[in-house]
């Protein structure tokens, strides 16, 4: 009898593993979540890569291989483009934070260009949704990871935008030593940016409901000039600059997202959730080692991306509520209300990044309120079988 029970138990486990593997591999092929539900929809596919990505108000935005900015309606497919730079001058930014922010009526983005004199220039542009030209609102010049001025992070909400500027100087009589000498946070709600009162030189991480989350930078001497977060995250009033709350996560701050009620910080291999008003720690969620330095939040949900999946965390419980395996590599993720949007790309030929070596697609998935935690599982044990 005991032998029969053991055989039944083993058979049940094999069946469970087989069913789980079938679900996972089917999901990987179709791009669906192992937990089932709606299938992802492809908004657009194109050759090359998306250098940055954002989504809001039923639109997606990206900067393509040739540094052209696209804004596209998910429903109608109507698309506008902005050619804002010479693609031969553009270089990947050394500044921290997201390089593209899309809000319902406007968008803000960062352009970093070589100047031809061993220096790079950071330019911040703003444009209305539907426009074909942008307007430059800030620019700084710095050497490659040395002294100068850096744009450090962009963020926005429906009311406006924020960005950080950090000025770095070479330490006198010290070779290859640099130190922060100035800077601050600027907000943009109209035609002219204004410096946020009281805000220190900082990396701007996120903005929501008239509050901005910033990471003050390390003021000590360092071997590189690129701004580095000191370890504290502050939430400040985006009008007065007053500190609303402050937190000190365990580990280096890599990214953050902000909602009217919750601050989420990716640091030290975990995503920590805090009460935005008080800074009280609400809980933590383990972040796998391949988690990218990018978070986005809407309502009570938080999205992040990994090497082969995009994941959604319930901000109330801290549990993974949706896990979407991807056969291509995700390169950006965003939450637009209850719509999860991401861009994924695949190498198709060897060589430098170009339209001939990569292919890219933008996908969306409708989420449901209060989804159960993700993860396929076999319920019951052998003793429950008839």
Mean pLDDT: 88
Give the CA-CA distance, first to last residue.
15 Å
Main pleated sheet: 4 strands, antiparallel
Helix content: under 10%
Question: What structural class do the secondary elements suggest?
Answer: mainly beta
Give the CA-based shape. globular
Order of helices and strands: HEEEEEEEEEEEEEEEEEEEEEEEEEEEE
How much of the sequence is in beta strands?
Answer: over 45%
The helix count comes to 1
Unreliable stretches, pLDDT < 50, 5 or more residues? 1-34, 373-386
* Order of adjacent strands in the largest pleated sheet: 1-28-27-26
Round the Cα radius of gyration to an integer and report it.
Answer: 23 Å
Could you explain how this protein is built, in words?
It is a single chain. This protein is mainly beta and 386 residues long. The chain has one helix at residues 2-30, and strands spanning 41-47, 50-56, 59-64, 68-73, 79-83, 100-102, 106-114, 119-128, 135-143, 148-157, 160-170, 178-188, 194-195, 202-208, 211-216, 233-237, 243-247, 253-258, 262-267, 270-275, 281-286, 296-298, 301-305, 309-314, 320-325, 329-336, 339-347, 358-366. The protein folds into two domains: 1-66 and 292-386, no CATH class; 84-248, no CATH class. The protein has one helix and 28 strands.
């Amino acid at each position: 009898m005991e032998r029969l029970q053991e055989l039944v138990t083993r058979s049940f486990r094999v069946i469970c593993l087989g069913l789980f593997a079938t679900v996972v591999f089917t999901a990987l092929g179709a791009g669906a979540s192992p937990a089932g539900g709606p299938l992802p929809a492809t908004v657009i596919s194109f050759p090359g890569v998306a250098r940055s990505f954002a989504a809001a108000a039923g639109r997606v935005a990206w900067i393509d291989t040739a540094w052209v900015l696209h804004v596209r309606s998910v429903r109608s497919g109507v698309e506008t483009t902005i050619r804002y730079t010479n693609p031969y001058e553009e270089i990947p930014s050394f500044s921290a934070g997201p390089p593209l922010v899309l809000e319902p009526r406007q968008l803000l983005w960062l352009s970093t260009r070589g100047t031809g004199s061993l220096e790079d220039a950071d330019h911040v542009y703003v444009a209305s949704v539907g426009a074909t030209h942008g307007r430059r609102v800030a620019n700084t010049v710095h050497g490659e990871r040395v002294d100068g001025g850096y744009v450090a992070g962009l963020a926005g909400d429906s009311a406006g935008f924020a960005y950080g500027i950090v000025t770095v100087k070479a330490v006198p009589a010290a070779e290859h030593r640099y130190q922060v000498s100035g800077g601050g946070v600027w907000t943009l709600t109209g035609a002219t940016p204004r410096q946020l009162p009281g805000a220190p030189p900082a990396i701007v991480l996120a903005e929501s409901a008239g509050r901005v989350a910033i990471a003050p930078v390390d003021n000590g001497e360092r071997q590189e000039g690129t701004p580095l977060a000191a370890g504290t995250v502050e939430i400040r009033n985006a009008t007065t600059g007053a500190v609303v709350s402050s937190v000190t996560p365990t580990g280096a701050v890599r990214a953050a997202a902000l909602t009217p009620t919750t601050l989420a910080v990716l640091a030290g291999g975990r995503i920590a959730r805090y009460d935005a008003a008080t800074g009280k720690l609400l809980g933590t969620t383990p972040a796998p080692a391949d988690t990218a330095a990018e978070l986005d939040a809407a309502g009570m949900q938080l999205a992040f991306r990994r090497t082969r999946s995009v994941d959604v965390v319930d901000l109330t419980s801290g549990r993974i509520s949706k896990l979407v395996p991807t056969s291509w590599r995700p390169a950006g993720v965003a939450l637009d209300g209850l719509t999860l949007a991401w861009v994924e790309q695949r190498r198709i030929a060897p060589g430098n990044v170009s339209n001939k070596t990569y292919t890219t697609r933008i996908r969306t998935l409708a989420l449901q309120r209060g989804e159960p935690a993700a993860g396929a599982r076999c319920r019951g044990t052998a003793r429950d079988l008839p």
